[in-house]
User: Which sequence fits this backbone?
């Protein structure tokens, strides 16, 4: 049974976590999660049904969760840490808050979607794509991320702020591919081509393109597919006005990011934590990610939702997620110098 309660400080906490660390039962698992999707609840409930292990959950934004883990130290009740974006889980690894584990099932996660040392593992992925207004742009006219910096797109581009980690990870991947000088020139081109100062999330950028505020934007695929699948006609209408481009199909491939999980450094229930991570890459759980939150599963054999399938197949960048995650700090400096705020 999944138990959750709202508490102060922006956290959603389970009553089971109020107990001391030593009182935790072997049949319970304490989960610190930065995933805020309601569709995940059946996923966790299914784990309990399969294993009998009850999940006690704390939900919060990634940075407060990492700080909580750090502050709790060896007294932390956390068994599993889950977050969106490789950059965030890599920060926790670098701070010594996670531990390496091994499992045959976890070894099936593609190499580029997991930490080389076995500290964290991707269990779902999302592509960062270019979306375009179908009435104003031909899909073949924007073949790469690099082409977004072309002056012909001046005043025609939308994206989130440079402070958002999705853009930091994308820029970190370009840094690995192009080097610092070319990446900074690219970031300057992005800043120069913006239709307005960055604001809002990925869905806001897509809506802006559909409304004619700009012709192009950057966004993760699941935001677009969520609009496609919405029960609201106005959302589906927005999606119908916008097309998707998977960049860099002629070279390294499209940048993909992950939601990832890891066993906490001082996990009281390490065995249960490994079972949970193993479950997340099992066929039933992978199906939840595709059907529930419009994310790509990491296991190639998992079926895609009809909407995801409608986007077509694409070549993805095989750069290891730890590489672009470790480039995040330098990427942010580059974007700041370039004027991408």
Assistant:
């Amino acid at each position: 049974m999944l138990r959750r309660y709202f508490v102060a400080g922006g956290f959603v906490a389970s009553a089971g976590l109020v107990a001391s660390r030593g009182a935790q039962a072997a049949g319970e698992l304490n989960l610190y999660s930065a995933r805020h999707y309601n569709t995940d609840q059946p996923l966790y409930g299914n784990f309990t049904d399969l294993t009998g292990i009850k999940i006690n959950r704390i939900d919060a934004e990634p940075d407060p969760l990492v700080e909580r883990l750090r502050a709790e130290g060896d007294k932390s009740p956390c068994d599993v840490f889950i977050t969106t974006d490789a950059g965030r889980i890599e920060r926790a690894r670098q701070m010594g808050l996670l531990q390496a584990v091994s499992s045959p099932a976890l070894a099936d996660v593609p190499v580029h979607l997991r930490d080389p040392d076995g500290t964290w593992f991707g269990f779902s992925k999302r592509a960062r794509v270019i979306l375009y207004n179908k009435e104003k742009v031909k899909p073949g006219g924007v073949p790469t991320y690099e082409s977004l910096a072309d002056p012909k797109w001046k005043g025609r581009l939308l994206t989130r702020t440079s402070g958002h980690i999705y853009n930091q990870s994308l820029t970190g991947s370009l840094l690995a591919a192009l080097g610092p000088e070319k990446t900074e020139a690219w970031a300057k081109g992005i800043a120069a081509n913006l239709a307005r100062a960055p604001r809002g999330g990925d869905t806001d950028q897509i809506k802006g393109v559909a409304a004619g505020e700009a012709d192009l934007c950057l966004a993760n695929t699941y935001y677009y597919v969520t609009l496609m699948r919405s029960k609201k006609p106005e959302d589906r209408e927005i999606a119908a006005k916008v097309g998707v481009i998977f960049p860099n199909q002629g070279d390294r491939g499209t940048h993909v990011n992950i939601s990832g999980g890891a066993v906490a450094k001082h996990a009281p229930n390490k065995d249960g934590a490994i079972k949970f991570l193993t479950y997340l890459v099992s066929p039933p759980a992978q199906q939840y990610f595709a059907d529930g939150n419009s994310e790509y599963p990491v296991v190639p054999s998992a079926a895609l939702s009809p909407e995801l399938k409608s986007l077509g197949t694409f070549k993805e960048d095989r750069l290891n997620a730890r590489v672009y995650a470790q480039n995040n700090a330098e990427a942010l400096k580059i974007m700041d110098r370039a004027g991408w705020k």
